[in-house]
Design goal:
The protein is of the alpha/beta class. The protein is globular, with a radius of gyration of 20 Å.
Length: 294
C-alpha cells in the first residue's frame, strides 16, 4: 500500500489563509488610525544569483497575497560588507519593517555570520541570529528557522503525533538539521542526528519513526533506509540532468514502504516561504506588544 502524501501545497495554503485573515482583522480594527503601520518584511538580495532572485520574487508575491507590506533591496554583487551592514542597521530602526531577511548565499567576500548577527533578533524572521538559536536550544519562545518549523507544522497539521517518537535526521546543517533537532526535542521526540561521518547509517535510519532527509543529494534515501510505516520528510531540493526538481528521497521506492511521505516538489519547500510570513506576523506582534509596554 502506498504512503499517505503530506501535501505542502494544501497545508501552506491553509496557513496563508489564516495569516491573511488575521492581517485583515488587524487592518479593519485600525482603519481609523492614520498612523497605523501594517506588518512589513524587508528582503535584501546581494548579487544576481538566478535561484535567489526566484525565491525573492516568490516571497514578494506571497507577501502581497497575505497582506504583508514588502520592501525589496537589490544590491550589486560587489557591495561592501560595510554598506550591507549599514542598510541592515537602517532597517533595524525602520518602524515600517518588522522582519528582515538577507537572501543566502551571499557573495564570498561577505561574512554571512556577521550579516546574520547584525539583524535585530526581534526582526530576524529567518531565525538564524545567535540569540534566537540559543533561545531555541533552551526551549524558549523565539523566531524559528522557517524550513525546520515547516517540517514540524506539516507533521502536526497532518495529525502525526511527535511525542515519544524516534526522529532520525540525516544532515547537521545550521539551517535545517540542528534547529530541527531542537524543535523535535521540544516536542518530546527522541532525536538522532546523522551525517557524512555516521557509521551504519542505513541501520540507524531504519530505527526511525520519523525520518528527515536534509542533505542535498538527489535520491540518496532509498527503501533500505526506511522502516515499514515510518513518516518520511524530504527537505531536499535538487535538479536532475533534465532540470527536474528532485528530493533527497527516492520517492517512487520509498512511497511503497513509508506510512506518510512529503513529495518534492509540493512538500516542505512550499512551507518555507509560508512560515516566513508567519514569522513576520509573529515579529510584528512582538514589536507592537513591546512598544505598548513602553
Amino acid at each position: 500500500m502506498s504512503a499517505n502524501i503530506i501535501s505542502g501545497k494544501e497545508i501552506s495554503a491553509k496557513i496563508r489563509e489564516r495569516i491573511k485573515y488575521e492581517i485583515d482583522e488587524i487592518m479593519s480594527a485600525n482603519s481609523d488610525n492614520p498612523n497605523f503601520i501594517r506588518p512589513g518584511l524587508a528582503v535584501i538580495l546581494v548579487g544576481e544569483d538566478p535561484g535567489s532572485a526566484i525565491y525573492v520574487r516568490n516571497k514578494k508575491r506571497i507577501c502581497e497575497e497575505v497582506g504583508i507590506r514588502s520592501f525589496g533591496y537589490v544590491l550589486d554583487a560587489t557591495t561592501s560588507e560595510a554598506d550591507l551592514l549599514d542598510l541592515i542597521d537602517q532597517l533595524n530602526h525602520d518602524d515600517r519593517v518588522h522582519g528582515i531577511l538577507c537572501q543566502m548565499p551571499l557573495p564570498k567576500h561577505l561574512d554571512e555570520f556577521a550579516v546574520i548577527s547584525a539583524i535585530s533578533p526581534v526582526k530576524d524572521v529567518d531565525g538564524f541570529h545567535p540569540i534566537n538559536k540559543g533561545l531555541l536550544s533552551m526551549g524558549k519562545e523565539c523566531l524559528v528557522p522557517c524550513t525546520p518549523l515547516g517540517c514540524v507544522e506539516m507533521l502536526k497539521l497532518s495529525g502525526i503525533d511527535i511525542s515519544g517518537k524516534h526522529c532520525v535526521i540525516i544532515g547537521r546543517s545550521n539551517i535545517v538539521g540542528k534547529p530541527l533537532s531542537a524543535l523535535m526535542l521540544n516536542e518530546n521526540a527522541t532525536v538522532t542526528i546523522t551525517h557524512s561521518k555516521t557509521k551504519n547509517l542505513k541501520e540507524i535510519c531504519r530505527q526511525a519513526d520519523i525520518l528527515v532527509a536534509a542533505i542535498g543529494k538527489s535520491g540518496f534515501v532509498t527503501g533500505e533506509f526506511v522502516k515499514e510505516g515510518a513518516v518520511v520528510i524530504d527537505v531536499g531540493i535538487n535538479r536532475d540532468p533534465d532540470n527536474k526538481v528532485r528530493g533527497d528521497v527516492l520517492f517512487e521506492e520509498v512511497v511503497e514502504i513509508a506510512g506518510s511521505i512529503t513529495p518534492v516538489p509540493g512538500g516542505v519547500g512550499l512551507m518555507t516561504t509560508t512560515l516566513l510570513m508567519q514569522n513576520t506576523l509573529q515579529a510584528y506582534h512582538n514589536i507592537i506588544s513591546k512598544e505598548a509596554d513602553l
